[in-house]
Design brief:
By secondary structure, the protein is α+β, with helices and mostly antiparallel strands. It contains 19 helices and 21 strands. The protein is globular and about 65 Å long.
């Protein structure tokens, strides 16, 4: 029998032999050159649309001093219903910008509405980050072949889309560019109303996935602030990194992917039928989806129904706000080459001025000067660090992926030195959908506790967690068996400034991914968010404390669980694996 060393050598040689053809093929795959990108912009004068009239009527009825209104969308029903309402109400334009759009049941319903809007004359633009657009999810790109719909892919990967592995191999030669992604999320109608926040489009983001669901938070914005969101969209849409779908894939390739997906689903249904002869309900004909991903009517009803949000009775809070948005140049274009640092393109941070019906004096009094608070910042996250530097009493933060760099820890330490209470809710190891990212947080945990930062980690299996966010529905599916995963990105400062956006407090959001956020000056909205977060911390999360001999996880209030001395709800195998391999992963890549 050969020695273990010889066996390892043969294994490496075999792997290289298998990968060599892929690597050679990867070297031939290139992004298209001289691509035609017709410039287009948001609706110039939205004032005469029904949505614009509705916003004006709502503001006058509420006697709102400020021109823009905001509504927190803190559960699957509000999140889904708001998007349906925008689709149905749009008369002129729909602009969608997302990091991920999954080809599943909930998205299928939304996109059918988008197609219907295009057929009634609405101009539709869809901008999607390219990282997840392989296999089943590539089918979303069929939108580009619908009349009235334009679709572009941001920072695309070269190569075929039938296999994720093949595209990853192709990306090896362009690793620095490929790891930088467009993480922004926008859903805008008629340039007068829109949704932004942390939520992508897919079953897991609307509470009906079978195994894992995200707990998320969006904000519905109305009024002139949406023009600032649209300006950010236009900047990305017309950027050289945005490629029309037709330049990357043709209809025939997408049809082949569809056929492959349907064949795979048929095989999966046959396997399920063999394991369960009683026969589970089969998904209807239509958009293909995994046999285990199609929610039943009962599951859908338990999370949300397919009713649009009633925009006529939406309880908007009218307040001054600004948009903070990374520039697209934070992501290097293909021509820049893999060795060019993101800063070489001087990305910069766009911070709009608050809009207030009372005029410039009222703006300054209501929100101070946000551009001054974020002076010197180059990214959304560094802008938040500037804001943290202005905190005087309290910081309440939700960051699902929390990997603080040196400047972030310095900002927290300085805040604590000023007597600011700092509380952070993040994912536990059990609730984290990217366990290796948890390592980047865990290695800083004791240092953060020592400086007085209060840490809370979401309990994955907590039933009814959604009620802690005011939704009345858990982050889990209707079966109660789904894992809840935190995905909201929120910061509340001194009970008066609320930030909701796409960013995490980690080095990836700070240095690599592009992000967008709304900063709203509102005591009422800040209070609403803090109450929900505090309830989640108290009833749905473990509180991590430093104790003699190491860390202790204090059980959530009313859970009847015991305190834990190791990462709760996780296996010894997972903890050991991350302990062995976690140190090899640098914070900047987590």
């Amino acid at each position: 029998m050969p020695s273990s060393r010889a066996f390892a050598s043969r294994l490496r040689s075999g792997c290289l032999a298998l990968l060599l053809p892929l690597l050679l093929a990867a070297g031939c795959a290139q992004l298209p050159q001289n691509v035609d990108r017709p410039v287009s912009t948001a609706l110039a004068s939205p004032g005469d649309t029904p949505l614009a009239v509705l916003v004006q009527q709502r503001r006058e009825a509420a006697k709102g001093r400020f021109e823009s209104g905001f509504l927190l969308l803190d559960g699957p029903q509000a999140a889904y219903g708001s998007r349906l309402a925008l689709i149905e109400a749009a008369q002129k334009t729909l602009d969608l910008q997302y990091y991920a759009i999954h080809a599943d049941a909930s998205t299928g319903r939304l996109l059918r509405g988008v197609v219907a809007a295009a057929r009634r004359g609405v101009r539709v633009r869809v901008l999607l980050d390219d990282f997840h657009s392989t296999g089943r999810n590539a089918l979303v790109m069929r939108l580009a072949f619908e009349p009235g719909i334009e679709m572009r892919m941001f920072n695309p990967l070269a190569g075929a889309r039938g296999s994720t592995i093949g595209r990853m191999v192709n990306a090896i030669s362009d690793f620095d560019r490929v790891q930088q992604r467009m993480h922004n999320k926008l859903f805008l109608a008629d340039n007068v109303m829109g949704v932004t926040g942390g939520r992508n489009l897919g079953d897991a983001y609307f509470g009906i996935a079978e195994t894992s669901n995200f707990v998320d938070l969006d904000v519905l914005a109305a009024g002139p602030i949406v023009q600032d969101l649209s300006h950010s969209f236009d900047t990305y849409w017309n950027d050289e990194r945005a490629y029309p779908v037709q330049s990357l894939v043709d209809r025939e390739e997408l049809l082949k992917i569809r056929d492959d997906v349907r064949a795979a689903d048929a095989k999966q249904r046959d396997r399920d039928q063999a394991q369960d002869p009683s026969g589970a309900p089969q998904p209807p004909d239509g958009e293909p989806r995994p046999a285990d991903a199609g929610p039943t009517d009962a599951q859908r009803a338990a999370a949300w129904d397919e009713k649009p949000l009633d925009l006529r009775s939406a309880a908007f809070v009218w307040a001054p706000a600004v948009v903070m948005a990374d520039k697209p140049a934070k992501i290097a274009a293909e021509a820049d080459g893999p060795n060019d640092a993101p800063s070489a393109k001087a990305p910069g941070l766009v911070v709009t001025q608050p809009r207030d019906a009372a005029g410039a004096t009222g703006r300054a009094a209501a929100l101070e000067t946000v551009s001054d608070l974020t002076a010197g910042s180059e990214t959304v996250v560094s802008g938040l660090l500037q804001l943290i530097g202005q905190a005087r009493s309290d910081l309440t933060i939700i960051s699902p992926y929390f990997v603080p760099g040196a400047d972030m820890k310095q900002a927290f330490a300085a805040a604590r030195a000023r007597g600011v209470r700092v509380r952070v809710l993040t994912n536990s190891l059990a609730s984290n959908d990217a366990p290796v990212a948890h390592v980047g947080y865990a290695r800083h945990r004791e240092e953060l506790l020592a400086m007085g930062v209060e840490l809370y980690e979401l309990r994955s299996e907590q039933a009814g967690l959604g009620s802690a966010f005011g939704s009345g529905s858990s982050g889990a599916s209707a079966t109660g068996e789904s894992r809840s995963m935190l995905h909201s990105k929120v910061l509340v400062m001194d009970g008066r400034l609320l930030v909701v956006g796409s960013m995490n407090l980690d080095l990836r959001s700070q240095l690599q991914n592009t992000e967008i956020a709304l900063l709203i000056r509102s005591d009422a909205l800040s209070r609403q968010a803090v109450v929900q977060i505090e309830t989640a911390m108290r009833k749905g999360a473990w509180r991590v404390e430093q104790a003699e001999g190491g860390l202790v996880w204090r059980a959530p209030e009313g859970s009847k669980l015991q305190d834990a001395r190791t990462e709760p709800d996780t296996s010894a195998g997972l903890r050991l694996l991350l302990k062995l391999f976690g140190p090899l992963a640098p914070d900047a890549l987590l």
